[in-house]
Q: What sequence folds into this?
């Protein structure tokens, strides 16, 4: 039995637990605070808090603090791969609406980018592909 | 192993040598397997979360639903985060107890972990149920969500009004609700459909639809356009009402004239009918009168139709004006009457897809964790099993880890 080298870490784990609860509370408070006036700031703050919480869980609860160097072999490649996975999605999916043609915009999941006034004439309706520009019947 | 060796014949062999087993990594095989599995899980969830982030921030600007739009309650999410953190802590305590060979204490903590996980799933189920009650589902036909106020949305409204009114009539429940549904159908939905059919200016069509959705659901994104269009439309239909009244007056007097003339013709015809032997002139007069009667009769019918049309239009306009006078544009009808009508939420369907996929896969992991807890709860949890609890604990912490990111991303962003 390995009772001989057992170290009681309950106190340390309790501290980690209260830190996690505290960080959750801070994250919740950020969402309702003035930081969200500039959403990017609020989002960054919340993600930093989440990363801190994740590290606390990984290092202490998942015992990585007390593991030997093999931990890097498993965690670092996985972290790099997952970061790259997200990054390679950005050009095709993240920026997908940046260069929508007006005709494509018409089929987007939102019409919020096309603000209209009462006097607007529809660009697509009267555009180069509208019925008016088609050859008239009987012109031959 | 030693037993095997003794019964094996090589015991007599002098050149027997033993191979020394050297593990590649200084950890038990079980733990290594769990860590390898978790490293694939990291990539699995980062694909899901990454896609969510990229889809969310790449959505047409300003369209992604806020937590309020999709009826997410922030504090419920926070409570669930707290519950999972607690469960992570209790499983750590369970491992500690097992290492000290206190099986009973280890079981107690593990059971508490199980309960906390079950609470998490219960809250999740409650939240899903609330989404469903608002008509938010991952996809049609159950989903009542439309990405923009377009013709598809309008026809969904028409169909829904028709079917629900029919159902309500058959069931004969909530008569007040039926009344308001009929009003919505006549003064909002069918009115808008007719208006859209009458104009070929797409800007006006789109504004009319925005007014429709704003009046029903009050999405603040359409507030400005809706108010603009309502002002324009009210002015237009009020002047139209005056015009109708102006047209009705001469039409009615014309009808009166026709009636008088018809009476006169009838009187003349009656007088002629009394004469037994008619002269040629009288016969001609008789046929002339009959012809005139038919002509005037036709005129009368056409003027009556015109009056009916005008009255109908007047009634529709008056109904529309009354409806807007009765129901202030600021308070959405859905909030007041809970009609469960189809609604517009830009990028709402993409939101629902990502939300249900992310939380669904997470909940599935929680469920698998709960099953694992139930299985090991049946075992003796002494020092020998500390490694097993630790392995399941690693998995459970990972589930907690995923939620640590999901909570702010879904509830607070």
A:
């Amino acid at each position: 039995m390995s009772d001989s080298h057992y170290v009681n870490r309950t106190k340390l784990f309790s501290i980690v637990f209260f830190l996690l609860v505290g960080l959750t509370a801070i994250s919740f408070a950020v969402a309702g605070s003035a930081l969200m006036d500039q959403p990017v700031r609020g989002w960054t703050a919340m993600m930093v808090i989440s990363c801190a919480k994740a590290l606390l869980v990984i290092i202490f609860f998942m015992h990585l603090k007390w593991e030997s160097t093999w931990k890097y072999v498993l965690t670092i490649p996985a972290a790099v791969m997952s970061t790259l996975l997200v990054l390679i999605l950005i050009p095709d999916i993240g920026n997908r609406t940046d260069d929508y043609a007006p005709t494509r915009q018409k089929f987007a999941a939102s019409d919020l980018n096309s603000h209209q006034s009462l006097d607007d004439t529809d660009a697509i309706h009267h555009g180069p592909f509208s019925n008016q520009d088609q050859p008239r019947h009987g012109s031959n | 192993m030693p037993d095997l060796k003794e019964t094996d014949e090589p015991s007599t062999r002098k050149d027997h040598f033993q191979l020394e087993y050297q593990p590649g990594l200084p950890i038990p095989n079980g733990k290594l397997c769990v860590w390898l599995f978790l490293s694939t899980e990291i990539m699995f969830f980062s694909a899901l979360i990454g896609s969510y982030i990229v889809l969310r921030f790449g959505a047409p600007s300003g369209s992604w639903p806020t937590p309020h739009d999709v009826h997410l309650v922030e504090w419920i999410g926070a409570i669930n985060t707290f519950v999972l953190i607690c469960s992570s802590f209790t499983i750590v305590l369970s491992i500690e107890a097992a290492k000290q060979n206190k099986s009973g204490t280890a079981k107690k903590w593990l059971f508490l972990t199980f309960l906390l996980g079950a609470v998490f799933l219960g809250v999740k189920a409650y939240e899903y149920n609330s989404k469903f009650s608002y008509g938010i589902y991952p996809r049609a036909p159950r989903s009542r969500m439309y990405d923009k106020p377009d013709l598809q949305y309008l026809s969904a409204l028409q169909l829904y009004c028709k079917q629900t009114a029919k159902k309500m009539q058959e069931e004969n429940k909530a008569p007040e609700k039926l009344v308001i549904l009929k009003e919505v159908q006549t003064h909002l939905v069918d009115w808008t459909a007719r208006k859209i059919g009458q104009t070929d200016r797409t800007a006006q069509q789109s504004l009319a639809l925005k007014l429709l959705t704003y009046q029903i659901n009050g999405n603040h994104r359409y507030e400005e356009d809706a108010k603009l269009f309502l002002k324009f439309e009210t002015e237009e239909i009020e002047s139209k009402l005056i015009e109708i009244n102006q047209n009705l007056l001469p039409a009615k007097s014309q009808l009166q004239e026709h009636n008088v003339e018809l009476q006169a013709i009838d009187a003349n015809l009656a007088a002629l009918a009394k004469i037994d032997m008619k002269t040629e002139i009288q016969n001609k007069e008789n046929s002339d009168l009959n012809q005139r009667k038919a002509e005037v009769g036709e005129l009368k019918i056409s003027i009556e139709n015109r009056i009916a049309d005008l009255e109908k239009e007047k009634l529709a306009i008056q109904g529309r004006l009354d409806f807007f006078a009765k129901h202030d544009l600021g308070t959405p009808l859905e909030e007041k009457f809970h009609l469960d009508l189809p609604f517009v939420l830009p990028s709402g369907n993409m939101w629902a897809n990502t939300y249900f996929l992310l939380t669904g896969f997470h909940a599935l992991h929680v469920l698998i964790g709960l099953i694992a807890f139930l299985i090991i709860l049946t075992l003796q949890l002494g020092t020998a099993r500390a490694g097993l609890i630790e392995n399941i604990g690693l998995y459970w912490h990972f589930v907690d880890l995923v939620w640590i990111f999901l909570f702010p991303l879904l509830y607070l962003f």
Notes: Residues 12 and 121 of chain A are 68 Å apart (CA to CA). Chain A touches chain B through 70 residues (CB under 8 Å).
